[in-house]
Structures are given as structure tokens and as C-alpha cells.
Amino acid sequence: MYERTEFYEKVKERLIRYARVDTQSDHYGKNTPTTEKQFDLARMLRDELISIGAGEVYLDETACVVCGKIPSNMPDGGGKPFGLVTHMDTAPDAPGANVKPWVLENYDGGEILLNAEQGIVMSPKEFPSLLQYVGQDLVLTDGTTLLGGDDKAAIASVMTFAEHVLSHPEIPHGPISLAFTPDEEVGGLAKDLDFDRFGAKVAYTLDGDHLGYYMDETFNASEATLTVKGLSVHPATAKGIMVNAADVAGEFLAMLPRFEKPRYTAWREGFFHVIAVNADVEHAKVVLIIRDHDRTQFEHREAYLKKCADALKAEYGENRVTLSIEQSYRNMKEYVDRCPYLIENLTQAIRLSGLEPKTEPFRGGTDGSALSARGLPCPNLSAGYENAHGRFEYVPIPSMEKNVEILLHLCGLFGRMKDD
Ligand SMILES: [Zn+2]
Question: pLDDT tens digits for 360-403?
């Protein structure tokens, strides 16, 4: 059986308390944050930061961002500053209200009855990841909602870490900045994190599944919209006159490379992905996303779409076809690589905690991708939850304890560095 650390009760209590607060964000929410209820957790975290003795605690009442600091306790104010960023919202993909977290102790590797009344069972046959956690204590759902371990498991670890450091002045450390942000699940990209207030010049997000994983490489991403203005006339007398917008959109779709789609790509292969098509004779609109880890390849993809649009303009008229491309986020790697100590310290901290660090190029983006591009290099450490965004989400308590340990090692490593 797994041996509990001094952090066990703290991370457990915190995850359960945070999970009960509904903080689901909304893809269609027009405001910032996309849902008002994220403030419920924001206020809770602000009060908690104050009560554990963090400094400069601040809740942005407009943007719903909570910040706090652990000031350096080195004699010369030394140690290299770094920050930790986690998100407060939960995914809109599964019900997020009335979460009823519970703890299964000493998991035996069998089926787990999540909900006797509704006969909801989680089985390692369907979710083999469970078998890695035999003998551990798991925080589970009642099978009707998500858990919100994404990303509240990370918040629980960060808060427990902060409390430990603040209550143990004998642990030498530099300045550490903390931020809790809204709307990660709906592309918020931590856009309202105020860098001046945050203070640190480098940071880590804590998010993602599987304990011990880190991430320093994400997609470059943009969204393209092709619109076509057609010309409708009676089909009987349309020869040489009609421009069928739906046909033009179809031609555009046919120009996209056959095998460069999510269905046919993996690892570092990029793609075009059509997410919406709306078309009739008079109007057509195609929305697609472009993804590639490699910056040059990515730029080629954007240029290729422009070429396609130009060909259609040449055929049907300059004013009939428009293409707009909007940047979503950038691969964090080129920014993170400029501060090699970010990954050196992180992997060392993971090793010092007795785990082998693992990574793979992430086929998506994180708040850290956007933060990195905005000037705050920000790789990611896994939060350690499993089956996120669904009713079978769970968090092994030892994974949260381990992350507290990793953060303590990280804080030691940064504490020994000079601030420049
Ligand atoms: Zn997340």
C-alpha cells in the first residue's frame, strides 16, 4: 500500500473543496470571464492565499485573475524568481454543477462503482490507466459530472506547496509568483494575466494528465475563414453568369491536401482541419484551423491557403472571395528554449522526486503557449489527473502529493540561482 506524505490530507481536502465549486466556462460566453461563477472559486482562492500568508494578494474584479506572491527569504533577497499558473475553470464538455467528489481508498485494481443508484461503473478494461494506481487513494466523481481535477488538482498542489513554503521559513527560496486564471478550457489563453502584477519573468503552468509529464512544445495555431459571395440567377439562363458560392467553397475544400488532416496525422505532423462549412448559391463560408509544430511549415500552410484563395479570385473575381487568417497561439518551444534552465530545473525537480520525466510534442496549445509568445516563457508540468473533461475523471491523491514535492524541489533549484 502507498505511504501517505504530510501533504496527503491537505491536497485531498483542497481538491474536494474546489471541485464542489462549479466553475464551468462557456464557449459561447460573451463576457470575461465567460461565466460569472468562476468568481466563486477566485474569491475562495484569494481568501486562502491571504490566510496562508501570501503577499500582494489581488483579485482582479474584472478579469477574474487571482495573484499572490511568496516573497524571497534569502538574506540578499536572492534566488531567481519564477511563477506558477493554473486555471480555475472546468471544461464545458460534461456537466460541471453539483460535483460530488468522493475518495476510494487503496484501489484494488477492479471495477469501481461510481453510482449505485444509476449503475455507473468505471472499469480498468475501458480505462487501463487505472491499473497504474492500484493501492492508491483516488478522488472520483459520482458518474454524473466531471470532477474538475483539470485543473483543480493542480491548484490543490500549488496551494499546499505555497502554504508549506510560507510556514517553513527554514526552506530557502527566491520570489515565487502565483496566478489562478479563468477560461482556459474555452481558449482564454490567460490573456488577462497582468505581467507587471505577476512579477516573475518565467513561469510554469500546471495542467494536463499523467504524473511526471512535462511539455515544452505545442502547436503553432491559427484559424482561417474563407468567404464567397455568389451570384444567383435562374439556372436556365445561368451560362457564363452564375457564380455558385457552394461550388466555389467545394473547390477550395478539394484543394486541401488529402492526407494533411487530423485523421491522417500524428506526432509532429501538421494539418488543416475544416471545422465548419456553410454554403448556398449566394453565400459560402468555410472555417478551418491550421496546426503545425514547425514554424516554417506552419507559415507554408498559411501561404498555401492564400494561394488557393488567389486562384479562386482569379477565376471568379477579386471581390467574390475573401480569406482571413487569425493567429491563435504559437509553439512555446522557441521561447522556452531561450531560457534552458526552465526545462533543466523542471526535469531535475521531477527526478529529485523519484520520477523519470517524460514528454512528447503536444498536439494542441496551452495558456503557456500564449503566455510564452507574449513574453513570459511558460512550459507545463502535468497536474496528474486522468480522464479529464468527462464523467470518469479521477485524481490519484499521491499524484497531487508528488507535485507538491516536485514544486518544492523546483523552488530549491531556483533559490540557488542568481537573479539577473
Ligand atoms: Zn486544464
Answer: 999 988 999 999 999 999 999 999 999 999 999 999 999 999 99
**Distance, CA 87 to ligand 1 centroid (Å)?**
7
Cβ-based neighbours of 115, under 8 Å, separated by 6 or more? 142, 143, 144
pTM over 0.70: yes
CA of 284 to the centre of ligand 1 (A): 35
Sheet holding 395-396, edge to edge: 102-104, 138-140, 395-396
Measured in residues, the chain has a length of 420
Residues 6+ apart with CB under 8 A from 128: none
- Give 406 Cα–ligand 1 centroid separation in angstroms: 19
Give the CA-trace dihedral at 304, 309, 312, 314, to 10 degrees.
-90
Amino acid at residue number 310:
D
Active-site positions? 89, 184
How far away, in angstroms, is 206 Cα from ligand 1 center?
8
Ligand 1 centroid to Cα of residue 147, in Å, is: 12
Angle, CA of 351, 189 and 324, to the nearest 5°: 130
* Residue 382 · residue 212 · CB < 8 Å: yes
Q: What residues are neighbours of ligand 1 (ion), with CB under 5 Å? A: 150-151, 207
User: What top-level class would CATH report for the domain 8-217+331-415?
Assistant: alpha beta
CATH 3.30.70.360 maps onto the chain at: 220-329
208: CA distance to ligand 1 center in Å? 6
Maximum separation of any 2 CA atoms in the chain, in Å? 87
Burial of residue 355 (CB within 10 Å: 0-12, 13-18, 19+) is middle
Class of the CATH-defined domain 220-329: alpha beta
CATH 3.40.630.10 domain residues, the chain: 8-217+331-415
- CA-wise closest residue to 384 among 204, 154, 64, 67: 154
- Cβ neighbors of 172 (< 8 A, separation 6 or more) are 73, 74, 79, 412, 415
Q: What is the C-alpha to C-alpha distance for residues 166 and 168, in angstroms, rounded to an integer?
A: 6
pLDDT 10s digits, 55-67: 999 999 999 999 9
